[in-house]
Specification:
With 247 residues, this protein is of the alpha/beta class. The chain has seven helices and 13 strands.
């Protein structure tokens, strides 16, 4: 189903250290390859191919997640370090579509995050590919991400890992779908009630998403705690009732 010899898929520790090298220089593109803390190098890797079930997206914007900053500043003990192009908050234009893709077309403006399931675990056998127990995550583990001219979406789950952007939304705004969505999802899972008082610790993009969803849920009061002056101001717009500086 998928060509796992393609250099964008890294399967072993040795391949993780060399899998980014260009195989076909006539089809090369620039990327920002992460080698370790404070070591990111602009290199050429092979431009991805869509495959039958995937798409290729030309990167128009790629946000820097807090996770990317942590990996840049210091290694995380116990987590694998892959020499890959990081970046998992991406937006761009679809430039190649696989033969079996029905709902995405060339030229579509999309937010997208890439993942590759194993197709063998019990979740994959149920068709729950985005919940695979052995998932390779683009820009994080085992698969190149959006800090490159193009990135590959091996499996398209429309409105889960690929979302079409409305014309009124910029690519930069589109990259925020993932972090804001985390905040929304946290509130949905918490299932707040109208008489609840909610406290949000930190009002970065995830926290702002949580504040917005809490407001929409109709809780009695929303309290936000944030040390940054700029972020405290930002918490007012989605509806925080009380905003404090814990410092």
């Amino acid at each position: 189903m998928y060509d796992l010899s393609f250099p964008w898929v890294m399967r072993t520790a040795s391949e993780r250290s060399c899998g980014h090298r260009v195989i076909n220089r006539s089809n090369a593109m620039k990327s920002a390859i992460y080698y370790g803390p404070r070591d990111i190098r602009i290199e050429e890797i092979e431009r991805p191919k869509a495959g039958e079930h995937g798409i290729v997206v030309k990167t128009r914007a790629a946000a820097i997640c807090g996770t990317d900053l942590h990996f840049y500043k210091t290694a995380w003990k116990g987590l694998p370090v892959d020499t890959i192009a990081r970046g998992h908050e991406n937006a761009g234009d679809v430039v190649e579509v696989g033969a079996n893709i029905q709902d995405v077309r060339m030229g579509d403006r999309v937010w997208a995050t890439d993942f590759l399931p194993c197709f063998e675990c019990e979740r994959c056998k149920k068709g729950e590919y985005d919940r695979c127990r052995n998932l390779k995550l683009g820009g994080q583990w085992g698969l190149h991400g959006g800090f490159a001219e193009y990135f590959w979406i091996p499996v398209v789950v429309l409105n889960r890992n690929v979302i079409k952007l409305p014309e009124t939304m910029s690519y930069q705004e589109g990259t925020l779908i993932e972090p804001v969505g985390i905040g929304l999802g946290a509130v949905i899972n918490a299932d707040p009630k109208p008489d609840d008082v909610a406290v949000v610790l930190g009002t970065g993009m995830v926290g702002l998403g949580a504040v917005a969803k809490l407001k929409d849920s109709g809780v009695s009061k929303i309290m936000a705690s944030e040390i940054s002056d700029k972020r405290r101001q930002a918490a007012k717009e989605p509806g925080a009732d009380v905003i404090i500086n814990p410092a």
